[in-house]
Structure formats: structure tokens, C-alpha cells
User: Fold this.
Amino acid sequence: MSRFRMLNAKAPVTLFHDGHCPFCRVEVNWLGKHHHRERVKLVDIQDKHFCADDYDTHFDAMMGKLHVLDNQGRWYIGMDASRALYAVLGYRRLVWISCLPIVSAVMDASYRFFARRRVRLGQWWEKRQSRAR
Assistant:
């Protein structure tokens, strides 16, 4: 498998996000304003009508890591999901750089660190934001 396969993601992609996560909400808000927003379909996995089984996956897996599905039926998970998303949004050079061995290793490790702590970091961030108001 090529380390650059995320550059082959085909739009439109479906981004499965946690609507309860403050970091995810910021990203989704940005995507909604992006000039290529038609390339991304947003699905909130916290929506009461969402069923992970419809996508042959599990809710807990989707809560643990970012998931992107391209229009060819290919899944991108974790940091690869971010790379695929940004590739279809037109940031291909940055994605290519993020796939280089040392850069990729650092970004992948950073993503895993963040993903494991996303809920707690989100709670801390929301408290901090509410105090700043």
C-alpha cells in the first residue's frame, strides 16, 4: 500500500464526525465555509438517526478515530482520514509533505495522542472558553 494513497481519495468524501466534540464542531464549522465544501458530506455520528451498522462499522471505532469514506467506497481512518479530507479540499502539497516518512511518523503519533485524549481535552477547552467570556 502506498504511503501516498490518501492523495487518491475521490470527492465527494463523507466525513463522520462527533457532533458533541468541541474540536470537531470547530472543524465542521470551518468546512461549512470552505470554498470546496461541496466535496465533503458531513455526517454527525452522534445524531439519533445515525447507525454505524449502515456503513459496516462500529460506533465505538468511529468515536475512537476519525473516519472518511470516499466516493469509491475506500475508508481512510485516523490521520489518513485527515490527509484524505485535505487532499480533496485542494491541499495536496501539504498532504504529500505529511506523508513523508519522518513527518508522517510524528503526525501519526500526535494524532494517536490527541485521539485518545480528545474527550477530556474537549471538556477542558470548553471550560476554559466559558471562563474567558
